[in-house]
């Protein structure tokens, strides 16, 4: 028996639904007028103090330090692990020999879509040799959807000569035809309609209606074919944004679907649709950034784990840090920027702080999940795709990139490892809760089992046509993100990812708090890009800096910010939908498919 569609998805709405929609429309009207600053506390009393303590040295912490130091503040950054957070790369211990660098490891591969604006702006201000870090971005040529027991689909992000081969074109045409025959035409029509409904939905409907509907429910996946569920309902969430389709809000996935659609059309982009760095992340970006910040005067304090925030007279008086090697330190400053990830920041909210700002307790409801990477170091060149690969039937929702082709400054065997490794196949694991071919969830496997199972899932998709694209013997070594650890209680992930579950926008804070000298920044903050990404972290840092400038009455120029591109041709439809939503009516393009 199939489940009935949500009341939100019916053509006819009940009177109760209409009243609820009208109530939500009224309640969200003020928020949607400027959703990024809603719930912001009024600025506290101005202070002549210029000392800022940035608690955390990940993406948002470094971005905040950069914007602050350029505007005349004294900045100290306190970090417990490594600068760069989840975006950093790291050397694999004990793998370099004869003057070569250790093999490059990472939390997961980097990806810079064209709709990013804040990260590119930061990169343009970081010197790198005779140019800037921005010039270290390199374009991909294609993306590949790899299926199991059916042709793969390779889609160019730009027209590249290596894609114009008989094999590639034949395979992609076969894949497109195969996909078209497996998903019935009426389901294609319904899915297309759902995308169009979202594109023409006004902001009030997006925040007041689609925020509270899961993507799975929004596209009515429960009542559709297996291929519809696997490729359309799950494909856009697990491979694209590492979210579970039954939990992620339709607003978040719809926003990203719109952003990526416009991205490949080149609408509102800052650069090509799909870019990577031309070397390990720390080499090409993080290390030059930290060096620039040091030259500008930022002071970094490493191995400092923030354990407490102390308040006095309605403000933060100090922070307490525990040093990795022992001992405690009191951190004094005029202003405090909490740049820790959500799951660590909310541990600092004492009963006293929660009483002073009750909205901090909302963060207890934010949900984090696992998305992390494993690298396979190959002893022979393996040609898969000149860009990202999504393994559509992999139980663990895998995506990968072959890195050597994008690192022109490096000769892999001469520069890394012991001379036997010629490439790094970097793989992201986005689903740790679904049984793999081995019958076990990734969270229930040890590191060796994870490596074997990921390799098996890759080969099942890549080798299904009979060619051995990837062989087990190609793997010289592998490296799993060290944030994954094991003890008697099982596996743990010290660096999970925020997931935008249904209704979570209500729980996410803005940069201001009721404590006038405490500002929040991180990928969980309300931002326009919305998703937990490097871009969102950078964007939030700029909001926090601008809030501080306003609080202090500074005449320094605000940090520039951008919003996602909104096509002008959709505005008439959205204005009509705004009236319909306020009247408790569905989007004009809704239909029962």
UniProtKB/TrEMBL annotation:
Q: Which UniProt keywords apply?
A: Signal
Taxonomy, superkingdom: Bacteria
Signal peptide: which range, if any?
1-40
Q: Which Pfam families match?
A: Amino_oxidase
Domain (Amine oxidase) spans 59-549
Name this protein carries in UniProt: FAD-dependent oxidoreductase
